[in-house]
Amino acid sequence: MEYIGFLIIVFLFLLIFFISGMVNERKECKRYRNKLEKEYGCENKREYKPEEFAHVDAYAKHHKKETSLDDITWNDLNMDAVYKQMNYSKTSAGDEYLYFILRNPVTDVHDFTDFEEKTEYYRMHQKERLQLQLILHKMGYTGKYSIYDYLDNLDTLGKRNSFKDICGIVALAAAVLYTFFNIGQGLLFLFAVLLYNLVTYFKVKSEIEPYICSFQYLFRILHEIEEIGRCRHDIIKEETDCLAKLYHKFDRFTRFSYLLMSPHRMNGDLFEIGLDYIRMFLHLDIIKFNSMLEEVYKHREDVDSMLTIIGKLDMYLSIGEYREYLGEYCLPEYEKGYIRAKEIYHPLLKAPVKNDIDVKRSILITGSNASGKSTFLKTIAVNAILAQSIHTVCADMYTADCFRVYSSITLKDNIFEGDSYYMAEIKSIKRILDAAEGGKTPVLAFVDEVLRGTNTTERIAASGVILQKLSQCAGFCFAATHDLELTEILKHYYDNMHFEETLKDGDITFPYRLMPGSATTRNAIALLKIMGYDNSITHKAQGQAERFEITRKWEVLP
Questions:
Q1: What's the CA gap between 46 and 29, in Å, rounded?
Q2: Would the CA dihedral through 154, 54, 57, 76 be positive or negative?
Q3: Parallel/antiparallel/unpaired status of strands 339-344 and 404-408
Q4: Across the chain, what does the average pLDDT equal?
Q5: 218 and 247 in contact (C-beta within 8 Å)?
Q6: Cα(264)–Cα(25) distance, integer angstroms
Q7: Start-to-end C-alpha separation, the chain
Q8: How many helices (H) and strands (E) does the chain have?
Q9: What's the pTM?
Q10: Cα atoms in the Cβ-side hemisphere of radius 13 Å centred on 90
Q11: What is the DSSP letter of 354?
């Protein structure tokens, strides 16, 4: 009777834990739903830990294309920041798929009809959007590593079996039975078995813990796939039907898994804490891991297909919310032969000055320091990528061809490879020339201050010829320069445009408006004066510059 009473107490204790966990889960779900409603379309304030952000490219690496944006262009345009701004994803699959889409803009006229229907449906239908967001939120993130990292390393685990773990359970059962015959020796035996199981549990667990985390994430996905199907959203029927077929391929993976690898594990649920102790002594999760490992070996491609579909669904929601955040955007149109945009702006600027552009050939942009040349190059480049990836442009109107986008804007010396700034620069530009000459898709090139790392005479001579070549073999080239000589040298190949500044009462302002023609002013010496440089420096420099303009010779300083 004492044992029965003890078991009843344990049962009631676990029941209380279970009910408490359910109540807490419902409260958390309601709180999160209210948060989603209130913050929809607000600025994305998600913070990324370095190790968390390190794996967002995992899906892209496993689906790499020849036309992917290269690292130089991605970093030049600060696309990590653009990605973070628009990433409202609720799952790791969504994080990785959105990154993949941005890293792989389409390079031919693409039908975005399906993309638009699903993105706009969930943007306009709050009830259905919230349903799907809550389900995706329960899937959550993998944490420090991508599931693809684990899949890549599965072979290192080799074949595993659960013989020792099952023996531990048998020994534990024998120890419990033995206590009925000799309670003293039985408890000693039971203690020894529990200690052995505990020690071996943590030893094995440390080896497979990263993989258990990945399987838990996969299990959460499988668990919530059923919930997605119950939503019965006709707009994603194709996706839900495909997910249902994939789900049944993982019947053995999911069988008996809820108590072993619950989707709510490690979230502070009291019921789950109790189950964790049971796992420690019975090795239930280790046994189940071994069977799951075998199933994942068989279905790697199916795992990839499932992650792709979930990633797409999450991406639709992200882009819809990003559009809500932007407020002012347009859908791109595709046409060869020119680039045309009205009121185009850079998405990362808080108070952007919008510009119009309508060009049928390459353009050369001149202007003084800080006048807006580099920002404008990035504005056009980033929006070209957005047009060909998320079908969204930060403008009132945008029409252009599809391009492969390349840039050479923000270069640095590479001390590890022994490259000077000039060497890094000529390598960077050479890769654009190679792509423009060798690819079927037209290249959209952006070059800021070409060959700035060398002397004036050779810079102007070489950059003139290089930019001429780019205009001939690339679809379009947008180049910015301080060398006004290039505006004359390249007038048969480039249209000239410029940014200018306003000097008034010893202060300088920049309207950031793109103007036709080449720049007629310089401000480098004026900026020295505004920043407080001594008059003996600024006056002498100004005199030197003025005399050079007349004589075309530099005077020797006394």
A1: 19
A2: negative
A3: unpaired
A4: 86
A5: no
A6: 9
A7: 110
A8: 23, 12
A9: 0.85
A10: 23
A11: P
